[in-house]
Amino acid sequence: QRKHQEIRAMRSQLKKIEDLGAAMEEALILDNKYTEHSTVGLAQQWDQLDQLGMRMQHNLEQQIQARNTTGVTEEALKEFSMMFKHFDKDKSGRLNHQEFKSCLRSLGYDLPMVEEGEPDPEFESILDTVDPNRDGHVSLQEYMAFMISRETENVKSSEEIESAFRALSSEGKPYVTKDELYQNLTREQADYCISHMKPYMDGKGRELPSAYDYIEFTRSLFVN
């Protein structure tokens, strides 16, 4: 915000240049050998810089809001931003569809490999969200909004699954027993949970017999 305000304060200096340019035109001095810049060119660049400042500010506010209200961690937001910059090779502030797909894969999305020209319904459904008009590019703002919404869905889903396990556990304990799993789930589901859940450790670091840590298990499912 401070930097954007500094840029806007410089508008008065651009106005001085524009006034000098107008005075030179009146005096029919149309070629200035002392600078490669034109008044129009400087004004266009200043406008672009002002718009960039507004976009960056909006994007940062969006990220701060996501961190504060949706449960998306600051580390996740940094990872999203760093990955975007990594694939934005030409530093244009946007990714083409192939760069965007590579970026998603690097973030853990299991997108199928398809031959060029072959239908790719899974990726197309993602593009319906981030590039509905198919202009061929995904901006940083569009990308961050998409990643935040997906991460928020994961957070909600994680909480829902955790609540479901808590409902299975008698008295809502932070662990579930082997018997509770087999009583409430199919044998295949219970077998899977038991083989993937860590034994529950109490506050003193002691392992409770036939007790499993469903909270750690649930959160591990949503790492990506």
From TrEMBL:
UniProt KW Repeat keyword: yes
Top-rank taxon: Eukaryota
Keywords: Actin-binding, Calcium, Metal-binding, Repeat
GO molecular function terms attached to this record: actin binding; calcium ion binding
Protein's UniProt keywords contain Nucleotidyltransferase: no
Domain EF-hand per the UniProt entry, residue ranges: 75-110, 118-153
Annotated protein name in UniProt: SPTN1 protein
Gene behind this protein: Sptan1
